[in-house]
Specification:
By secondary structure, the protein is mainly alpha-helical. 56% of the residues lie in helices and 6% in strands. The chain has helices at residues 12-23, 27-34, 48-71, 78-89, 98-112, 118-129, 143-146, 167-178, 208-224, 226-248, and strands at 151-154, 159-162, 182-184, 194-196.
């Protein structure tokens, strides 16, 4: 359904634009970077294709935050989640209820878990694509529900994209973009165990405590394997020396 499953490659023009947006300290300055004045010759500084590519990158980064915040959401963290994404989902954020967010969290965690069968993961994501808001009888005429769209066709890019106010649609797109990077930290004490791996063999997130835990586990593994072999060899040498001494006596 979604034609753009992976984040597009970033050109130098797009990287420079994103860097300038990040360096802008106020909303006004950011808007001036995105929508610059025309040059003396009348040519616009920012090309439409560069802006679209930059927007794709920004949305991809935003979806990373959404995935991580939702997967690591505590049972009592709904208010914080709603506060973080209130601006992102606009007026629709008022209709996102706690029970729905917690259910999506539990489903996302199953998708995140490598022990979940791929068929189950597919079933969960398929159900997300079928979701539609069901207003109460008194809310049937509410424009919030009437205007809701999970998917939006964008002719300028030739893509079918998730609606900005669709939590389910953004989750589907986010999972598709990051599916191969979903990992659960190997530190049982990690407070935010759901993370996005930078390497295929990464087993721990990059929190300081988890890095220290990983180092201790590596040292312990070395002690039991390589160190154990060395100790057995040293013990064997000592035993041979003792036997030689007893024979000489």
């Amino acid at each position: 359904m979604v034609t753009q499953a992976k984040a597009a490659k970033v050109s130098s023009e797009v990287r420079n634009l994103l860097k300038r947006i990040a360096q802008a300290s106020t909303v006004k300055e950011k808007l001036e970077v995105i929508f610059p004045e025309t040059e003396p010759g009348g040519r616009r500084v920012a090309k439409a294709r560069v802006l679209r590519a930059a927007n794709d990158v920004l949305l991809c980064e935003w979806r990373k935050t959404l995935l991580l915040e939702l997967a690591n959401l505590q049972d009592s963290g709904f208010a914080r989640f709603q506060r973080i994404f209130q601006q992102s989902f606009g007026k629709w954020s008022r209709q996102i209820e706690e029970w729905l967010v917690l259910r999506l969290r539990d489903e996302l965690r199953k998708v995140w878990d490598s022990s979940t069968p791929i068929q189950k993961k597919q079933q969960i994501v398929d159900e997300w694509t079928k979701w539609n808001p069901r207003p109460r009888p008194s809310q049937i005429g509410d424009s919030i529900y009437r205007d809701y769209r999970m998917w939006v066709p964008v002719l300028a890019t030739g893509r079918l994209t998730p609606g900005l106010d669709s939590l389910h649609g953004q989750l589907v797109q986010g999972v598709m973009e990051q599916f191969e990077r979903l990992r659960i930290c190997g530190n049982p004490e990690c407070p935010t165990p759901y993370f996005l791996a930078r390497r295929k063999d990464q087993k721990y997130c990059e929190r300081g405590d988890c890095t220290s835990y990983a180092q201790r586990q590596y040292a312990l593994k070395w002690w039991h394997s390589v160190g154990g072999d060395r100790r057995r060899k040293e013990s064997s040498k000592v035993s041979r020396k003792q036997r030689k001494r007893s024979i000489k006596r």
